[in-house]
């Protein structure tokens, strides 16, 4: 099979049939074999009935239904496991992504051998209150991850099947699939300018709160991506820094004591235990030891996990 479409849908009953028919027209015009997988993410309207209606008209339209809303990342993850195509296309169900972009995305994956091609909605039909925060957010993610993309959160993306079969996403990590793919070793990532259409039905499911959760997810991802297999590098480094700080404070306390007793013979104004530096030294040493122990425990867990998990094998001969 050439292409699998993975389309998460949450309360998008008006657009399901129209989108499936649009995709089918484009696929038939280019002689692609394909499947369309809608994932109903706990819709409260008639989205599932419309998916079944689309399936009745075209057996290549398939549907998966969650018992409640689990989020876009969960919907994509389930769709990735079900996909059978050589190229996997993700897109939103709100008709703002154009299926006419798909043939070129497919060509970039199959002929130019990219692992992932992300859509770039260069001209967006969104209010400025949504565009500018998104632009700032994408700039920060690009700088921190080292991936030169303008629109990480664009729903329209194309993947080599080996990518989606070897990554796992959860929470709100769908925004960072290019970053997750890079950490997994799929580094041939690029972008393509795509058409962004005005929303025809319904309303946006995203608010400003996603910026806060998005940055927290990014920090989590960066730490996990760099240190999941070598946690001692993180905890051990912080532990050494903290322990050394405590050790330097301790030396300062001892020197003041020796200086007062044998060199200047000027008595200390306050006992050692009454000085703030004493407690700073104590806390820094204790935290340093704890971080070091946490690093050892995390290293043991990482080794056990690594022994149970195969590394990615994407091709055999």
Which properties best describe this structure?
317 residues, alpha/beta, Spore Coat Polysaccharide Biosynthesis Protein SpsA, Chain A, seven-stranded mixed β-sheet, 12% strand, elongated
Write up what this structure looks like:
By secondary structure, the protein is of the alpha/beta class. The chain folds into two domains: 3-227, Spore Coat Polysaccharide Biosynthesis Protein SpsA, Chain A; 231-308. The chain is built from ten helices and seven strands. The chain has helices at 16-29, 47-57, 72-82, 102-110, 128-145, 161-164, 177-183, 209-227, 231-263, 276-308; strands at residues 3-9, 34-40, 61-65, 87-90, 116-120, 157-160, 189-193. A seven-stranded mixed sheet has the order 3-2-1-4-6-5-7, sandwiched between helices. The radius of gyration is 27 Å and the shape is elongated.
CATH architecture of the largest domain: Alpha-Beta Complex
Spans of at least 5 consecutive residues whose pLDDT stays below 50 are: none
Beta percentage is 5-15%
**Overall mean pLDDT:** 86
Helix content: 40-55%
Described by the principal axes of the CA atoms, the overall outline is elongated
The strand order across the widest sheet is 3-2-1-4-6-5-7
C-alpha-based Rg, rounded:
27 Å
- Tell me the CATH superfamily of the largest domain: Spore Coat Polysaccharide Biosynthesis Protein SpsA, Chain A
Distance between the termini: 21 Å
Count of domain modules: 2
Report the sheet with the most strands, covering strand number, pairing sense and barrel closure. Answer: 7 strands, mixed
